């Protein structure tokens, strides 16, 4: 069936009008926004860290790969990243945020649909029966909201910023996992050094007791010196048991952090505590602005931008909501002739909903969104200030740690020389055994102090790495 020319022209004219109205609506949908203008809320920070000069050039390690030298530790870090449940959960949250953003992004576009329907019916009457069939094919979109006031756009922006925030949170979780793993490994390495020191002390005490036992039988030593040597040997044995217990606890803690048992071939090598991390330490001389690149700071800022976008969406909800439904297609009495001979038709159905009285709900939602934004601003500023304080504290500890290691080295050298002098004098019968015991205790404490000072410095370097946002 063919329509008259004037009807065909009228239909085409109406179709062009509908397309023009739809195109104009789509253009207008992107012209308005009720979001407040975003202003950088970063607090004013000193340009450099306390104790550093403004023109000092950055030096030292700036990534985990540069800081960690021990290949065994690198393998353990890889296991921790592979097995950690927190990181797996963080990755799932990133993917969820990605899908939510896809939903919001799709919501800014009309849902296109195709519908094909057909029917066949037979009717009976006095003149007989007749068979009628119809076929309809429709293409269009339904319930498309014209974003005249930026509501959909604001929700899409908020979803995007939430997704970006989740990515930065994942980076921060990864950074923390690496830092915790290194700290556990360093603690185990230090306690292994202390265990070796305890074993050496026990061997020394046992040898001293043998010497005094021989001297006592020869009448060259007093029973008091012998009993003192026995007491020192018992104390050394107790210290050794405590050191072994601590090493075992450290290993269990490392296994828990990694998420699986760490093989012996991946444990620290005794006597190589100083070789685990780079001697250059952490990159210093960096401007304080580097904190703004920290993953948690970046996540906080993305959350702030999302809160700002939510204000626009809440404000837009107080204005009319305009929807549009449009369709076009062909209808024919025969499905086979639907494309070639079907009658064309179109429809355009705009709708508008204007909030009149909602007991102040929308206004309260807009105000709540503004309060959420203010909270996000304060949280962001607080995060930046706390990050600066963390770095400043770690740098102070770093400076003191280097001085402590220098003093501990000096003490170890002096006490070691004093011990050698007393041993020679005791062998010559010049010094008493009590002097030997005092010299041994001093040398032992000096060695212990050097180990603790070294691991304290390394642990602080890891803390400084995390505080600076390095390693990812």
UniProtKB/TrEMBL annotation:
<dbReference type="GO" id="GO:0015562">
    <property type="term" value="F:efflux transmembrane transporter activity"/>
</dbReference>
<comment type="similarity">
    <text>Belongs to the outer membrane factor (OMF) (TC 1.B.17) family.</text>
</comment>
<protein>
    <recommendedName>
        <fullName>Efflux transporter outer membrane subunit</fullName>
    </recommendedName>
</protein>
<keyword id="KW-1134">Transmembrane beta strand</keyword>
<keyword id="KW-0812">Transmembrane</keyword>
<dbReference type="InterPro" id="IPR003423">
    <property type="entry name" value="OMP_efflux"/>
</dbReference>
<keyword id="KW-0449">Lipoprotein</keyword>
<dbReference type="GO" id="GO:0009279">
    <property type="term" value="C:cell outer membrane"/>
</dbReference>
<keyword id="KW-0472">Membrane</keyword>
<dbReference type="InterPro" id="IPR010131">
    <property type="entry name" value="MdtP/NodT-like"/>
</dbReference>
<keyword id="KW-0564">Palmitate</keyword>
<dbReference type="Pfam" id="PF02321">
    <property type="entry name" value="OEP"/>
</dbReference>
